[in-house]
């Protein structure tokens, strides 16, 4: 690790992620969701009907944090809890119609933020960036890295 740029890697990745979350918050006047709530909704829009405990794992947060987040999202009509058919102790979380209908608007905001972040990068630079970040995730997480994206 003699390359001085490598010492900046973690800071750069963290800063870019933080700045993107901040930008989502700035644009998100219409929906009023926090970045953590966005992440939860995106997960549900990808695979609806996720156990609450699994959501905590996927989002890498404590189960109590997910429970509170789901409480707020349920109160606002974004998600609903249902008991699992196979185990009535397990609560499954589902996106509501409101969340699914807002999906296109949310995707537009996401595309705007991504385009802002990637502006000035040529298509080949973008491909290299995505490939490198994907490889880094795979190196750190293993084969399940693709599931986390």
Summarize the structure.
The chain is mainly alpha-helical and 149 residues long.
Shape: globular
Q: Any idea how many domains?
A: 1
H/E series: HHEHHEEHHH
Q: Tell me, what is the CATH class?
A: Mainly Alpha
Q: Structural class of the secondary structure composition?
A: mainly alpha
In CATH terms, what is the fold-level topology? Arc Repressor Mutant, subunit A
Low-confidence stretches: none
Protein name: MarR family transcriptional regulator
Pfam families: MarR_2
Keywords: DNA-binding, Transcription, Transcription regulation
Report on this structure.
- Pfam families: MarR_2.
- Residues 6-138 form the HTH marR-type domain.
- Keywords: DNA-binding, Transcription, Transcription regulation.
- The protein is mostly helical and 149 residues long.
- The chain has a single domain, classed as Orthogonal Bundle (Arc Repressor Mutant, subunit A), CATH 1.10.10.10.
- Helices cover 65% and strands 8% of the residues.
- The chain has helices at residues 9-27, 35-46, 52-59, 63-75, 97-118, 123-141, 145-148, and strands spanning 50-51, 79-83, 91-95.
- The radius of gyration is 17 Å and the shape is globular.
Note the main attributes of this structure:
149 residues; mainly alpha; Arc Repressor Mutant, subunit A; 3-stranded antiparallel β-sheet; 7 helices; 3 strands; 65% helix
